[in-house]
Design goal:
CATH architecture of the largest domain: 3-Layer(aba) Sandwich
CATH topology of the largest domain: Rossmann fold
Strand order of the largest sheet: 4-3-2-1-5-6
Helix content: 55-70%
Keywords: Membrane, Transmembrane, Transmembrane helix
Shape: elongated
Strand content: 5-15%
Oligomer: single chain
CATH class of the largest domain: Alpha Beta
Largest sheet: 6 strands, parallel
Radius of gyration: 28 Å
Structural class: alpha/beta
Number of strands: 6
Length: about 350
């Protein structure tokens, strides 16, 4: 699991600040001995990240971490800034390989990039401007968030706001008081794994999935109904034709989404399937119209060779439709909106 750590001790002082550091080091030891990937955004002396790294270093277990930072922060020479990267500290880590990832200018895009890379965001302490905005951004992106209220700060207020997302047992364990016994970090990490399995921040899309599936089935049935009245088309041929067009269109849509760097999930796949089947109906109807115009005769299939030829031709159209589907309807929508606006202005 990819875990993004966020938080700081800037709101703490005295014994509370020291306990924060000890707890972070315990968490670092637990992370070092686990198989989780650690994502950080700072090595500031006030940041949670720094003391987690110290804990990981003390475990003598080789590890690799990702460190996201804004390119606007100095990152050369013996630099140690309140919000930046301490190169001397990084160079002192013998058991940890730090992979730095520079992101644009400013902390907001840096945190968002780190959130997108992560699966779970663990927040301890911190202030509203940094920790608070990061955790709420992660919640919007449906990442699992774990605001630990033990050391106050932004994490405590976020926990109060989101506590209904967790079970009573999880709430109790998240609010456990820190006791220096070497178990706090491991217990917290185990709790993170348990909560992440439930994905409490994810929106339930069951209704959308069922609706997409129902529409897909209805469209497929309609497509078969269009094909089967032709006496030369058997049910098997109808299925083969529809599948060849739909699959080709799905491939085109998937390629387009991949090129657009748009992560595809199951709801998206069903949406693609729905659009693909709809496209297959349109393509088949256009093929029938084209055959009538050019040959004065509807499409007919008399042998397997003609079936394969027609499959290939329609699949090519399906692939093209998948590639341009989104942009076509986008331009159609823009044209329609422009026409309406023009009509309104003319009145």
């Amino acid at each position: 699991m990819k875990i993004l750590l966020i938080g700081s001790l800037r709101h703490l002082s005295g014994p509370e600040a020291e306990n924060f550091k000890k707890a972070a080091r315990e968490l670092g030891v637990a992370l070092a001995n686990s198989k989780h990937q650690v994502i950080l955004c700072s090595t500031s002396p006030s940041a949670l990240d720094r003391y987690v790294l110290e804990g990981m270093e003390s475990s003598d277990t080789p590890n690799t971490v990702q460190l996201y930072f804004p390119l606007s922060v100095p990152n050369s020479g013996s630099t140690s800034t309140e919000d930046g990267i301490d190169n001397d500290f990084i160079d002192s880590l013998a058991n940890i390989i730090v992979h730095p990832v520079g992101v644009g200018n400013g902390w907001r895009p840096t945190h968002v990039r780190a959130i997108r890379e992560s699966e779970l965001v663990l927040a301890i302490g911190g202030k509203e401007r940094g920790t608070g905005s990061t955790v709420y951004s992660a919640e919007v992106l449906e990442k699992t968030v774990m605001p630990i209220p033990t050391f106050g700060g932004a994490a405590q207020s976020i926990f109060a706001d989101l506590r209904r997302r967790y079970t009573e047992k999880e709430q109790s364990e998240m609010g456990d008081r820190y006791i220096e016994n070497g178990k706090w970090g491991q217990n917290l990490l185990d709790l993170c794994v348990t909560v992440h399995k439930r994905r409490p921040m994810a929106i339930n899309r069951t209704r959308d999935l069922l609706l997409n599936l129902a529409v897909s089935i209805a469209l497929l049935a309609g497509f078969f109904a269009l094909l089967l009245p032709d006496p030369t088309t058997t049910p098997v041929q109808a299925i083969l034709l529809s599948l060849s067009i739909a699959i080709a269109t799905m491939v085109g849509s998937a390629v387009r989404e991949t090129m657009a760097d748009s992560p595809t999930r199951w709801p998206s796949y069903l949406s693609i399937a729905t659009r693909s089947i709809l496209a297959s109906i349109v393509i088949y109807l256009l093929a029938q119209v084209g055959s009538l115009v050019l040959n004065n005769d509807p499409l007919s299939i008399t042998d397997s060779t003609e079936l394969k030829t027609l499959q290939i031709k329609l699949a090519v159209f399906g692939l093209a439709a998948g590639l341009v589907w989104e942009s076509f309807f986008s331009k159609l929508g823009e044209w329609a909106k422009g026409s309406v606006d023009s009509a309104i202005r003319s009145e």
